[in-house]
Amino acid sequence: MLATHHTFTTTTRGLDRTTPPMRLFEKAKRYGVWNPSDIDFRQDAADWQRLSPLEQEVLLHLTSLFQAGEEAVTADILPLLLTVAAEGRLEEELYLTTFLFEEAKHTDFFRRFLDEVAGVQIDLSHFHSPSYRTIVYDALPAAMQALLTDRSPAAQVRASVTYNMIVEGVLAETGYHAYLSALERNGLMPGQCQGIRLLKQDESRHIAYGIYLISRLVAEDDSLWTVAEDTMNALLGPALGVVADTFARYPVMPFGLEEGEFANYALGQFQKRIERLERARGASLQDIYQVTAHAIDHDDA
Ligand code: MN
Ligand code: FE2
To answer: 22, 48, 115, 190: which has the highest count of C-beta atoms within 10 A?
Structure first.
């Protein structure tokens, strides 16, 4: 990185507020400022006491996946901030400050649930299956930390596909969908439901940024499409494995959770993201702004 500043964006060309990252920054300043400490968990704590031991175990299991996942994405986003800052992409850096803040709040949110609702101080890492470890313990930090020594467009594509498309776009979205429908269907845990709904909005901005970043890179160099596709395909097996491992652990799943529904949901998310990214091939930057802006305005990345 430069040891001295030769110029400043905001005292020369200014900020381009029409770009997708500035639109995301605007949305994040409005919707990303909810406070996990304000969530009222009193009814949730009462609900927890009435659950069976199996129901408690399944909720702890799912929460342990979210908790470690949120901590991982908080820890692992920093090399991407360094990368966009080094390229002088100020609009993207401004947006990414909210991204990091939001992941920190998600980490805070789940720990409040574990402390104040479940009341557990035990090691939950036995819930992390081999497929989960492949992605969250290994592939995610490897792809992100690679940026510390290699900021090439290909390394950026690998990082963003792993982080935004697989960890957020397939794993987190599927997990939050499963968890929220389990609680809502059974009229349980209003505080946790409220937090997950807010967190899902934050995640949709994160995924929209990933779509924008990868699209921008692929549009500039079509050979990066293969890099994106290969990274997606390499991680699809372990991503679907996380769903399979979770269900395999429980002969009878409580809350009416069905494996097929979630495996299909995960696969559908994967397919949707591949199709979104493929549209960037041969597109102009203006096309990408337009498509991304539409997705941002409609919360549909
Ligand atoms: Mn998050
Ligand atoms: Fe996220």
So the answer is: 48
